[in-house]
């Protein structure tokens, strides 16, 4: 998928994201991949959001909804690399190795 790098950069800056990568989740069907996008993100120290908006920001769910709107997707899943269980990291190892690094742009 093609991404507008300035829009992604604006989103990341707004939400204190230091690194964002899109990956193809191997557990998704081809049809799901058309509707859903998966990302791994890292946040600035002290700026990791809560799941909901209870800490004054949009929360992870709000960020997912905002990014889905930006990308024209039905759903976006944001995972933090630090919060990803080791079993999930292992299951997604190949997909994460092949992830498209979007921010900072490389």
3D architecture notes:
- The protein is an alpha+beta fold.
- The protein has helices at about 5-15, 30-35, 60-70, 85-90, 95, and strands at about 15-25, 35-45, 75-80, 100-105.
- It starts with a helix and ends with a strand.
- Helix content is about 40%, strand content about 25%.
- Strands 3-2-1-4 form a 4-stranded mixed beta sheet.
- The chain is built from 5 helices and 4 strands.
- The model has no long low-confidence stretch (mean pLDDT about 90).
What secondary-structure arrangement, pairings included, does this model have?
Elements: H1 5-14, E1 17-23, H2 30-35, E2 36-43, H3 59-71, E3 75-80, H4 86-91, H5 93-97, E4 100-103
Parallel strand pairs: 2-3
Antiparallel strand pairs: 1-2, 1-4
How large a portion of the residues is in β-strands, by DSSP E? 15-25%
- What letter string, H or E per element, gives the SSE order? HEHEHEHHE
Average of pLDDT: 88
Helix residue percentage: 25-40%
Question: What's the total helix number?
Answer: 5
Sheet with the most strands: spatial strand order: 3-2-1-4
Biggest sheet record: 4 strands, mixed
Secondary structure class reads alpha+beta
Which outline best applies? Answer: globular
Rounded Rg = 13 Å
In angstroms, what separates the terminal alpha carbons? 16 Å
Oligomer: single chain
